[in-house]
Amino acid sequence: MKSDKKNSILTTQNLSIGYSSFEVAHDLNLTAQKGKLISIIGKNGSGKSTLIRTLTRIQDPLKGSIILGHKNINHYKQNRLAREFALVLTEKLPENLLTVSELIAMGRQTYTNWLDKLTETDKEKIDFALEMMQVRPLLNKKFIELSDGQQQRVLIAKAIAQDTPLIYLDEPTAHLDVHHRMETFLLLKELTQKYDKTILMATHEIGLSVQMADELWLVHNKAVLVGSPEQLIADNSLATIFNSDLIRFNPKTSTFEFR
Amino acid sequence: MLNISLGSVRIPVSEVIDGLLGQDLSKETWKHILFNYRIPKSITAIIAGTGLSLSGLLMQTLFRNPMAGPSVLGITSGAGLGVALLIMGAGVFGGFAIDGLNLNISIIIAATLGAFVVLLAILFLSYRIKNTLSILIIGLMLGALTTSIVSILAYFSKAEELQQYMFWGFGSLGHLSKNELLLLSSIVLVGMLSIVPLLKPLNSLLLGENYAQNMGVNIKRLKNIVLIITGIITGIITAFVGPIAFIGLAVPHIARLVFNTSNHKILVPSVVILGAIVLLICDSIAQLPLSEKVIPINAVTSLFGAPLVIWLLIRNKNYRF
Question: Is residue B283 part of a domain?
Fold first, then answer.
């Protein structure tokens, strides 16, 4: 993909991801531009999560390197890396008695002093996140008592409070109803357009991604196909990946239907 | 106060207060008992109670396991092995006999050595292992290993030696000299103070290791620091007062249940205070008020602590660890 070097926030060089026993994808040369909403799409088990786990340094790459900003991701100290990207995972949180306000405040931990005292700036960033995700009424509740959808929104609010140029989300709409699913996409879009954040999310929402995302990364056959939704529909990539004897992609409605 | 006043010789509470305020007591022997036995014993109880409870809290958070306590790493058993080798090993392998005066100090040294050998083994192994839960299992295995060595030693040793070892195993708060107490308190205090900067990363750890990393926590370093601090605190307390069971496991749960929070900024101070109070109460009960007998502290901690935790759990049905 052609890329304007100045505007790229993340690049991978000959990146191979996976586990020692098997490779999930290899020789990835990907670039994410500033201010873009990027959907990572692929079948179950295609390697979407592995890609995100590798890009966020949870898992080591098999080969190649990841450049974040202008520096190799391995050269960041953990506390500095926390200021470069925020993370929302699909995994359930371990059960605990934390309140929503304690949890969202944790998004600021990389900036706070050793006693974790919140400054005015921290409070402003938290306020912004609360408004954005509309979770202020939940502040004094225990996180564990919330519904799955509310928990998801609180975790996204925590990531927004972290105030990083890059946000990774792994299936952020998995537990949400249709209203909150569309609303989340809208909010993420707003974050990229208004606040110049870069968002990379693994998702199964193909229809919404086609409508909203600036770019799709299709994970398929140990490779990643990159392009705008229009391109990938036009050259039949989306259809090829998901079509089966059961379903086919309808480019006009950008949805799948039964054959 | 009450704890100080109770004992095989009963000193009225008012006299205890007078004594603490520096006034003369109506009996000279009371003053002697007060300053040489009762007060050091109470301080030992406070130190041991807070230290063990804090270690328990750290272990439970690090391993995200409600069953974890200071004893799970096998450090307590390590101390036990040290003492067993000293007391019973002498008989089994032949060699030197220790006279009564030096026995106390020898036991402390042996227990400390035992605890540290296990701690070093755990640190060495954890360095080679990424998975935190594996460390927990290794700790349990090391504990089982050392316990079985102790049983083998016990099988081959003389009755008196076995009895001596059993007495150490009952736990005792009351035999420390002033210097020993000073050493114990300063080590435990330093350990406790070094927990303060850990409050923030410990809170992050509540969300799991992946999220904690994304909040800027260096997991590997945190893990090592927590292992070293708890290892030292547990090892040194066990060496001085014996393996006091249950406190380290139960007090963090009591604190969470009472204050209904997982936040370490609240939990750590409350565990410190509750740990001290619980062990003081246990010690007071162990004195068997109104009688001249004293029962082992270890029997009391579980006997009264277990029903307390069960009762709290029944009352608070929404308890999340």
Answer: yes
